[in-house]
Amino acid sequence: MTAHVIADDAEALTVAAALAKEFRGGASARDAERRLPHAEVDKLSASGLLAVTVPAAHGGADVGALTLAEIFRLLASADGSLAQIPQSHFVYVNVIRRQGTEEQRKFFFAEVLAGRRFGNAQSEAGTRHVQEIRTRLTPRTDGSYVLTGVKHYATGALFADWIPVLARAEDDELHVAYVPRDAPGLTVIDDWDGMGQRTTASGTVRLDAVPVPADRVLPHHLTFRGPQLHGAVAQLLHAAIDTGIAGGALTEAAAFVRTKSRPWFESGTDTAAEDPLLIQRFGELALRVRASEALLREAARTVDAARTGPTDDSAAEASIAVAAAKAHAADTAVEVAGALFEVAGTRAALDSLNLHRHWRDARTHTLHDPARWKIQHIGRYVLNGTRPPRHGLL
């Protein structure tokens, strides 16, 4: 595969905006037919957009969190499912950056610059909670490993060249094993049937004694031994997806009201777009979206400020800022996507129009992790100065 190499933040945003415009046209049909976006994901790779966080020393643009968040917001405003597919890709590029050896960085960053994609195999079903990982990384006498386990909600695995697998070693510490998509013993099953985010390819990954060379394993547990931005970056991208879904829903609602809705007879107006009560409601919804966008930008700037040598305080500030953005964006996405029907009227509920995809996407994606716990951590931080915990979900 040959991929373009993006030079800087400005070019990354230009490319993202152009792709979002292109992807928007087919988003409804892909969702309605559950047609996986193979061609669109290939275009993401070829554009160079998936390599924009590769460090400059390895030939990448090394864009900041502010740019990365905007890339995801733009893509999600066009297609919430498509935007979620590369979220794990960037998370696991970041793992290599922080925990990889120089040789591992050299190899994998070259793969990313060439357009190779990372999926994920993180979550497991039937465990006590999300942090319980049963997948095992067992050492062999030659220094290599074998992987055994079953993963669920493996977003992007069907599109991946490499599947990073979260597993526990003999000492019960967390590691990430980077496994080729075609590795013997690895099976990806397309069994995701969620009501929303239908085309994320978030299926099941089965690992049956999958061989893994020693140099494809990274010590992820070390990420959380000191101040870290791993969780903040991962959650920032989720917040950007929710913010983008909200903005896309508002844009489509406005277009529908301007072109297809009839005014309520008591309004005394010739068009629905002149109805003062609809104008009021659109103003309220726009305020919600603008607030989410502002919180997203502020969170990204806080992450960027902490990137060079994060301290306990700067990392905590970043996590809290991202938690605020994510909690607000989640509420906004669900509210705005639901209000689309309120402002557009009965015709908007026709299944053939598929306007409900915005709400289905928002409701499904915002279940990723509970906003109520983010608000708890914000409250503890503000009231008692308690720093948030170090884990990948905050």
From TrEMBL:
Enzyme class per UniProt: oxidoreductase
Pathway: Sulfur metabolism; dibenzothiophene degradation
Database matches in InterPro entries: Acyl-CoA_DH_C, Acyl-CoA_Oxase/DH_mid-dom, Acyl-CoA_Oxase/DH_mid-dom_sf, AcylCo_DH-like_C, AcylCoA_DH/ox_N, AcylCoA_DH/ox_N_sf, AcylCoA_DH/oxidase_NM_dom_sf, S04_starv_induced_SfnB
Residues covered by the Acyl-CoA dehydrogenase C-terminal domain: 236-369
Subcellular location: Cytoplasm
Catalysed reaction, written as an equation: dibenzothiophene + FMNH2 + O2 = dibenzothiophene 5-oxide + FMN + H2O + H(+); dibenzothiophene + 2 FMNH2 + 2 O2 = dibenzothiophene 5,5-dioxide + 2 FMN + 2 H2O + 2 H(+); dibenzothiophene 5-oxide + FMNH2 + O2 = dibenzothiophene 5,5-dioxide + FMN + H2O + H(+)
Protein name: Dibenzothiophene monooxygenase
Protein source organism: Streptomyces griseofuscus
